[in-house]
Amino acid sequence: MKKTEVTKTVDVYSAVKLTSSELEAIKIILINKLNANIEIVNSIDVSILGGLKIVIDGEVIDISLLGKLAQLKNQFTDILKE
């Protein structure tokens, strides 16, 4: 897949610093999905506990443990309301 000349900066939040090979793997996936050059900024956010939170053009992809726990809490709350 030919990528465009567009470069997107992607913020990747993780509970620990990602290795260069982990960042490269994420970059390759994003290049293929977004058809753009990718610049990754890895920031540490221990509050997410594990996993990743990825921000692209203001859109958040939350695959963190904290995000999953919040989803479970919401589902459980909805069940209790029934």
Account of the protein in words:
- By secondary structure, the protein is an alpha+beta fold.
- The protein has one domain.
- It contains two helices and four strands.
- Strands 2-1-3-4 form a four-stranded mixed beta sheet.
- The termini are far apart.
State the separation between the terminal residues, measured CA to CA. 48 Å
Q: Please provide the count of β strands.
A: 4
Structural class: alpha+beta
Radius of gyration based on Cα positions: 15 Å
The rough form would be described as elongated
Instruction: Look at the structure and give the mean pLDDT.
Output: 92
Per DSSP, the total helix count is 2
| Major sheet details | 4 strands, mixed
Strand order of the largest sheet: 2-1-3-4
- In the residues, how many domains can be counted? 1
Helix content: 25-40%
pLDDT < 50 stretches: none
Provide the succession of SSEs: EHEEEH
Provide the descriptors you would attach to this structure in a database record.
82 residues, alpha+beta, 4-stranded mixed β-sheet
